[in-house]
Design a protein that fits this description.
With 303 residues, the chain is of the alpha/beta class. It contains nine helices and twelve strands. The chain has a five-stranded mixed sheet with strand order 3-2-1-4-7, with helices on both faces. It has a five-stranded mixed sheet with strand order 10-9-8-11-12, sandwiched between helices. Strands 5-6 form a two-stranded antiparallel ribbon. α1 crosses α2 and α3 packs across α9. The longest helix has 25 residues. It is globular and about 55 Å long. The protein binds zinc ion.
């Protein structure tokens, strides 16, 4: 028995077959997201990606998507600025109808965190705070293999907790002072440029690569990492999970990022949590795809 999974992001759409044990079968299909062309075009591209997969023995579809997703109805209820017209999209119904299979949709932060909790770094632990730090910052608290989705399906917007390192910095949500404004890869890069960094440097990856010979880069990385560590400690204090998992592209930046992140985390914990494990995820594993299928199966929508 096999399922299809599709993960719809602002720049890429990934699809794969997922087996009984949650493993990826074969090579996932990755297509670009026609993000400026409206929700119908994005849905059609998701269906295109699925149509390239082997359909034999497939029981249903697990969908992971950017935006705030009401997974009880399979609809997008909160816009993400990265996909034009995405709010209001009937995600599960639209894709399910097009491919002729039952479909369930969940937010990508929830899907990814569930994948980490069941198949990834937090596997074997009963509860986890998963903080994904990439271009943006998100995640979820997961307990007993259930992601906390919240009363408005918006739980896990960890990028929008305030941290002192972000004070005064604008966040894409329209507020200021949020973790994402400095802790994300985009935030780190923006801070570097705003503080007389080399204007030729075009990404957070390049900022990190310069820490040994560029004082502004070293400061940007240290500040960004400290913001993530401090926020992670605050989340640990709030949820008291078995483990905290730091994932996402920025978390793979090496010791010059991980050391200040871990110091800030340790400094921010309340005494009761001093022994809590902070795990840095291994990159890869298509965890949002696997999490989306795990969620769909747990809902009983696909067998
Ligand atoms: Zn914000």
């Amino acid at each position: 028995v096999t399922w299809w999974a599709v993960d719809i992001g602002g720049t890429k759409i990934a699809a794969a077959r997922v087996d009984e044990g949650g493993g990826i079968q074969g090579e996932p299909v990755v297509l670009s997201t026609p993000a400026g062309h409206g929700s119908d075009a994005v849905l059609a591209q998701a269906v295109n990606a699925l149509a390239r997969l082997d359909p034999s023995g497939v029981e249903g579809v697990g969908i992971s998507s950017a935006g705030v997703i009401d997974s009880s109805r399979g609809t997008v209820i909160g816009a993400t600025e990265s996909i034009a017209g995405w709010a209001g999209t009937e995600l599960a119904a639209g894709i399910g109808r097009a491919v002729g299979l039952p479909a369930t949709a969940i937010g990508d932060g929830h899907a990814f965190a569930l994948g980490e909790a069941v198949y990834g770094e937090a596997a074997g632990h009963r509860s986890a705070v998963v903080l994904a730090v990439g271009t943006g910052v998100g995640g979820s608290y997961v307990r007993d293999r259930v992601p906390l989705q919240g009363s408005h399906w918006a739980s896990g917007h960890f990028g929008h907790v305030p941290v002192p390192q972000a004070m005064g910095l604008p966040c894409y949500c329209g507020k200021t002072g949020h973790l994402e404004a400095i802790g994300s890869g985009a935030g780190m890069h923006r801070w570097y440029l705003a503080n007389s960094g080399d204007p030729e440097v075009s990404s957070a990856r390049q900022v990190v690569a310069r820490v040994d010979h560029d004082a502004v880069a070293a400061a940007a990385v240290a500040l960004s990492a400290a913001a993530v560590g401090e926020a992670a400690a605050g989340l640990a204090n709030a949820f008291d999970p078995d483990v905290v998992v730091i994932a996402g592209g920025v978390s793979q930046a090496g010791s010059r990022w991980q050391e200040p992140m871990r110091s800030a985390f340790a400094a921010g914990l309340i005494p009761a949590l001093q022994e809590i494990s902070l795990l840095v995820s291994h990159a890869g594993g298509w965890l949002a795809l696997r999490g989306a299928v795990h969620y769909a199966r747990a809902q009983g929508n696909v067998e």
